[in-house]
Amino acid sequence: MAEKLRKELCAEQVLFCTNVCGGEGFTREAFCNTNTLGSKCACSNGAEAAIRRYQWPVFQRVCEAQRAECRMGCDHSNVANGDKSACFNSCDARMACGTEHAPELKVMVQNFDDPTSGSPKPIIKVTTSAPKAPADESATEQKDVKGKKDQKGDSKKKNSPLPTGSSSGASYSAAGAMSVAALAVVAGSLF
Q1: Ranges of Basic and acidic residues compositional bias (predicted)?
Q2: How far apart are CA 191 and CA 172, in angstroms?
Q3: Alpha-carbon distance 106 to 84, whole Å?
Q4: Domain that holds residue 76
Q5: Does a structural domain hold residue 84?
Q6: How many domains, the chain?
Q7: pLDDT tens-digit profile of 24-41?
């Protein structure tokens, strides 16, 4: 998140806290660290307890930014077309930012320099399992040769986004699993 946006967001967070407390006279402590987005709101009247974690401006924006980054990762060229919808749905379900089902983000802290944490990595279910790693290199070479033979014989496979043969299905699943792993890294890398 750009520095300018972090500064604006922190200003919004502190103002939100002051308003929740009922004004500056009831605000015991309100801060937001523009580097980590770690925030604290403490009211002398305890009014901050009525606000759900997902209602705080910093929480909402961090979650929304991470969901957007996750969804952008779904458009990445390594994600097969058939897996994109599942990828988008995973991002939205795991990062339901404005709801009770929002991810656990540590943005509310006790001290100004306390660390914050990001959201969970998106989980995408792969319907078929990836093949087990072969015991030696010769087995890998044999598997590669067999896969090439299977692909040459069936012209329908070239135009279909889904595999039709058993060996190409395993290759497809392995590639899909690698794409899912790459997305998980992207989704957690914002902070």
Answers
A1: 140-157
A2: 31
A3: 29
A4: 3-125+183-187
A5: yes
A6: 1
A7: 999 999 999 999 999 999
Q: Is residue 147 part of a domain?
A: no
Residue 75 tokens read as 């458009």
Q: Does residue 69 lie in a domain region?
A: yes
- Is the Cβ–Cβ distance between 101 and 52 less than 8 Å? no
23: left (phi over 0), alpha (psi -120 to 50) or beta: left
Alpha-carbon distance of 115 to 35, in angstroms, equals 10
Residue 79 domain-assigned (yes or no): yes
Confidence of residue 8 (pLDDT cuts 50, 70, 90): very high
Model-level pTM? 0.58
| Least confident window among 85-99, 134-148, 154-168 | 154-168
